[in-house]
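Problem: given the chain below (387 residues), write out its structure.
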Amino acid sequence: MRSPPLAGLRVLDLTRLLPGPLASMHLADLGAEVIKIEDTGAGDYARSAGAVHGDISYFQLVNRNKRSLTLDLKQAAGVDAFMRLAAQADVILEGFRPGVVDKLGIGYQAVSSINPRIVYCAITGYGQDGPYRDRAGHDLNYLGYCGLLDQIGTPGGAPAIPNFQIGDLFGGSLSALVGVLAAVLGARASGQGRYVDVAMTDAVFAHMLFPLLAVLGLGQALPRGEDVLTGGMPSYGVYATSDGRHFAVSAMEPKFWQMLCAAIDRPDLKPFAFATGADGQRIHGELAATFAQRTFAEWTALFDGVDCCVTPVLRFEESLENEQLLARGMIVEVDGVRQFAPPFKLSDLPFEARLPPPAAGEHSEEILRQSGFSVDEIDRLRVQKVI
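Solution.
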């Protein structure tokens, strides 16, 4: 079996909570050596703050396959230790507010002066420049500024809050990975690393394609619930069943709409797949009335035999048992906790939970010893409470 594609890549992960740790877990799952650097107090506060529905915290879901080193970066000896590790690293991830790592003495300029091939990625809400650079924020704030939140919801209603951190996960995790891996390829080819500035607001904003099309064509985005993907077109929407469940209709191509109309015995609706405005609302109402005539189970049985992009809206616990997701191996167990497998399938790379989520500082001595620190140096760091 071949080595994992990122074997030999050493990552120092200074991030905490959600966006950065998920990004570094993806790197770890692909074979990178990820060293999670936590402070000597409580460590990553997702360890406790993330337990919102019982004893399991989301820390356990985004920190497998990593080792933990606790390090006091407010002490000079802690900074010196970090810089010795950074001299041997390929990637550094950080999620502090702009300027914090520079004040600590471990910013990109300091590290690149001793390790020119370093790829140094900063994940922030608003980026390293601009008038908002120093503002605090969380996912909902980023969605608000980039215009996405205003687009989600029903006509005349308030913006709907998604139960998925679009900015954190899509913006902060996946966009950071694209930038990091591109910079790693460049560093391996040229010997020169790069600074990767990822703003979660930017990342979501840069993918707002349909609102931008509306502005380019009409001069403004359509109100929520009225654009083609938010309820303005009957062939793309969510419809309630007689027992209060829902179906997702995405029959946007003419052939699928024709199949849908035939399946529900409404041939009169066939000309109106792309109706908008008053016609669109009328056909939407007709389709809603039709779906309301049968139960969720009845519609599920019917559409199981009609491949027209109409699917049940599953509750999440049902998704955990969904035959397709199970067949894809998307649920794994790590240290007794069910969690998600990597969302990418690479040939000759079966998923492996090499390490469970680490205890804070669990691998401090091991990491330092392997990085060339002597026993006496490690003992001094421990006495000074640097580790």
